[in-house]
Task: structure prediction
Amino acid sequence: MPKANVVFLLTDQWRLQALGYAGNTQVQTPNIDRLASESVSFKHAISGYSVCCPWRASFLTGQYPLTHGVIVNDVPISGEPVGLGDAFKSAGYKTGYIGKWHVDGRGRDAYIPPERRLGFDHFKALECTHDYNQSAYYDNNDESMRFWDGYDVFAQTADAQRYIQAQASEAPFMLVLSWGPPHNPYETAPKEYRDMYDPRNIELRPNVPPEMAKEAREWLAGYYAHCSAIDKSVGDIMDTLDELGISENTVLIFASDHGDMLGSQGTVRKQKPWEESIRVPFLLRYPAKYGRESREVEAFLNAHDIMPTLLGVCDLAIPDSVEGRDVSAALDGAPTASPGALLACFHPFGEYSQPVGGREYRGIRTACYTYCRTLDGPWLLYDNDSDPFQLVNLVDQPHYADMQAELETFLQRELDAIGDEFLDGMSYINRWGYPLDDTGTVPIR
Result:
């Protein structure tokens, strides 16, 4: 079998609960639902470091955040890890990256030179923007700033289609298409998609408090509009692969870096250990190897597991610098050796800073339970089977004492294995010498 192409569709802040195939009857995602019907779904895809830069740096290096150093947003990767692009390029792949980057840490508008692109040769990207209708980028090695035409999801998708068309006869290639939405601002999707959702008709999860209901419905209406716009682009990519006759031998992934609370638990955005922040989609379609039938795998997949698992799917060597687990064998039905996923907040900052209740934590998400502790001790324990909306915190409850102790032992074993001492956030900030402003946040440049 020839080497497989890889197309990785990455979204920003798309929670699992906002997809039709995952049970949401309000959001319209027909193309992604179709992809799910032909894919292996990682039932336990977890955003263990559920904020942009730590997750992305782990995705692109296969390393735990305390190794690559990106423990907060807007700081650079430390050391010299073998990047995702490097690993595929060394195996003879053409490599491309289009869209949001957000691991360079030297300014959100700054040009990113080739030596800091982790092995991606074709590179049409910007560190970070959330202005989706006036979205800047740099075209490969041209240091002059350019702008995508219109809504950037559509423009970036069209560029990805051109890249795929150009590479199709020179396979194999590996492309990451990294979209900015549905990350807020929620109200900026194209009008035809905003018109699809009336806030008055939006149903809320039971864990959204009444005092946030009106605002949460407005957020969700805009959020779903972005989701449906992206869904169109997923369909465009699928159509391009079909038209070129390369779908069968292309690994197509749809994923997200983290979720969005959107009012659940009375809070917003990400960086938190609740389901809406940590549970994300991860669909993988590779017909030549796994067929086109929908099925779920039980293996836990965290950010640093993605790189080795993709390399495993493609039968490629995994660099020694990678710390994540290759769980690709689970796609062939092998038992998984990953019974849970680590959850971590290394330093509370920004929207989750200490003045608004932010705290460092470490935790574990198993098939049934979520358990977290802070520097002060046990914090959260949920039985997600009986309490899927996490309405009852069972921590320190006598009838769950044995389970809490078991989860604590599991968590500590995982931390020990990866060398995480669980220090206070400033210890890590000082370790790498990151500057903080008077809000306790690394300044955005």
Notes: The mean pLDDT is 97. Residues 213-243 form the longest helix (31 residues).
